[in-house]
Write a structure and sequence with these properties.
The protein is mainly α. Helices cover 74% and strands 0% of the residues.
């Protein structure tokens, strides 16, 4: 099937030449696409101070631009999260890369908050299209190893989000620092698009039959089986909290971190912004198991995020770095465990839809709380707002730890 025929959900009558890639190559390609799209979506983190000066944005404007990405991503997950179950994983990923290319070019050349937000929104659409497709593709490629499929999914996702700020900071040292990172990223996306386009697809779902096959792409109401509901809500709540912390790291944290370390180096600030997410990504390689892993990991997240807020009051860069690392490790271990549980209880034919629904709630954590943080910064100032925000996140993490502990203690 060609990409266009897959998008129309119609089989091709004649065979065509294509790359019949190995399972390993398909695993790598699925991971690389979502990783690269998320890198591009987070290149802007260390660039926001430059963009504020160029466009004349306030702190609230930064959170609006950041949240336009999240809200577009959430909207796509709600409307199109199940598309790859019908058009195939490859076609959904190709579409995501094309939209991501458009979003990056618009963002790089934006001269107003509106065009900046439009570019961010298109990046959100791209990540939304790729999220369910890549997760489902990895699970289908590792049918006997669902735990490793989930690990690869979270490693690619968290790794891309973590690498984005660091890469953005380094590329900003080149001429034209607010545009060059996106031109380089666009070249990488084109390089990934070529093998993806040539790939011989292995559709998970047969093309829809009947005169109107596109009707199956219409938005549908999410439904979760009774057995998976508890795991679904725990994963969603943990994800929401996690991305509230990540949203802070990727939007207003650069200014906060600069005040703690008394430096304005963009590579350094980008690296600090990605520390929590990098630790989360690397934690996917740990083999922590047991009934009490989730409550302990959530408790570590709760205490650590409070210490991130306290680092400025104590003027301690080392506390900031250490707390950022332990917050990422706690988040990564907890989210992997609850994500694995819900993924293992969902039937394969509805995997993309259900996982996309988990991500809808998860990504809302990067929008609603972060906009509230932006309003608090405007009213109270950066450091008081950050202290209050991290205290609330810490309390929420400890509350979830208590709920998880009660569940673990049940016979």
């Amino acid at each position: 099937m060609t990409v266009l025929s897959e998008l129309r959900m119609r089989p091709v009558t004649a065979g065509r030449w294509g790359w019949d890639a190995s399972t390993t190559a398909r695993l790598v390609l699925a991971g690389v696409v979502i990783f690269t799209l998320l890198v591009g979506a987070n290149l802007a983190t260390p660039l926001y101070p430059l963009l504020q000066a160029r466009i004349g944005m306030s702190s609230l404007g930064v959170t609006v631009a950041f949240s336009s990405y999240v809200l577009a991503l959430v909207a796509v997950l709600m409307v199109a999260g199940h598309w790859s179950d019908h058009i195939g994983r490859r076609a959904a990923l190709v579409l995501a890369v094309l939209v991501g290319l458009a979003g990056g070019v618009i963002f790089a050349n934006a001269d107003t908050l509106i065009t900046l937000s439009l570019g961010r929104a298109l990046q959100g659409v791209a990540v939304g299209l790729a999220t369910g497709a890549s997760s489902a593709a990895l699970r289908e490629l590792l049918p006997q190893r669902p735990d490793w499929a989930s690990r690869f999914t979270l490693l690619s996702s968290a790794g891309g989000v973590a690498a984005g700020p660091a890469i953005g900071g380094l590329l900003s040292l080149l001429p034209d620092p607010t545009r060059t990172p996106y031109y380089v990223h666009s070249a990488v996306l084109v390089a990934a698009l070529i093998p993806l386009w040539l790939l011989k697809a292995r559709p998970a779902i047969a093309p829809a039959e009947g005169p109107k096959p596109l009707k199956v792409l219409a938005p549908r109401k999410p439904s979760i089986s009774h057995d998976a509901r508890g795991a679904f809500w725990m994963a969603s709540a943990t994800g929401f909290l996690s991305f509230a912390v990540f949203g802070f790291c990727l939007s207003l944290a650069p200014g906060y971190f600069a005040s703690v370390v008394h430096a304005d180096s963009r590579p350094l600030i980008g690296l600090l912004a990605g520390v929590t997410l990098g630790a989360s990504a690397l934690s996917q390689l740990l083999g922590a198991r047991g009934r009490f892993v989730v409550p302990v990991a959530l408790a570590v997240l709760g205490v650590s995020v409070v210490l991130v807020g306290a680092a400025a009051a104590w003027s301690s860069p080392w506390l900031l770095v250490a707390a950022s690392i332990t917050a990422g490790v706690g988040q990564g271990i907890a989210f992997r465990q609850v994500f694995n549980e819900v993924a293992g209880k969902v039937e394969a034919a509805r995997h993309a839809q259900v996982i996309s629904t988990v991500y809808v709630i998860t990504y809302l954590g990067s929008a609603v709380p972060v906009i509230g943080l932006g309003l608090a910064v405007s009213a109270l100032g950066l450091q008081p707002a950050v202290v209050g925000f991290t205290a609330l996140c810490g309390l929420a993490a400890l509350s979830l730890a208590t709920v998880s502990l009660r569940s673990a203690l049940r016979p």
